[in-house]
Write a structure and sequence with these properties.
With 196 residues, this protein is of the alpha/beta class. It is built from 8 helices and 7 strands, in the order E-E-H-H-H-E-H-E-H-E-H-E-H-E-H. The chain folds into 2 domains: 129 residues, 3-Layer(aba) Sandwich (Rossmann fold), CATH 3.40.50; 54 residues, no CATH class. The longest helix has 19 residues.
Length: 196
Amino acid sequence: MAINKLIALIFDLDGTLVKLPIDYNKLREELKKLASSHGILSEFKPLISEIERVSKNNEKLAEECLRILEKYEEEAAEKAEVIPGAEKCLSMLKNRGMKIAIASNNSNSCVGKALRRVNLLKYIDVIIGREGFKVKPELLSIAMDKLNVNKENVIMIGDSQSDLRAAESIGIKCYIFEGENLFEFVRGILLNQVMD
């Protein structure tokens, strides 16, 4: 993909733009206890799809599971920390006329609150969070629709193999951020795009 075709980037949130200090062990224990009280056993791994599975035929259980999850997310959003280089990265992209979206398994409320806390919300064109039980490929497709871009015009920046699998499943190129500085990472991607 040449750089002149690239018009948008979709970012994951946690681990990519911000660090959300969610205690997943404690969260899963609370969900296990709730599910157990309904006669259901689960380790809640992977988290979102397991919440959906265990509460599929029980709307009250689904609501309780989501309430617990959102409580942990909201608490973490209030303590969110910016990933080094994130603001410089987003500023560079906006200065180049790029569209920027967030596609996250966190709730819209959590995403907005975390981005506001670290002063990144002003750079974001579209936020697609997990409302209900949407899975990541579906979130990415919705983000592309809202940005009005094709898969040839967008890349995803995530931090996990599940981000990579989700992007690849709908034909989007995905880069996994594992480094120290998001600006340097994305700048390297853009430079490589020019060379292709």
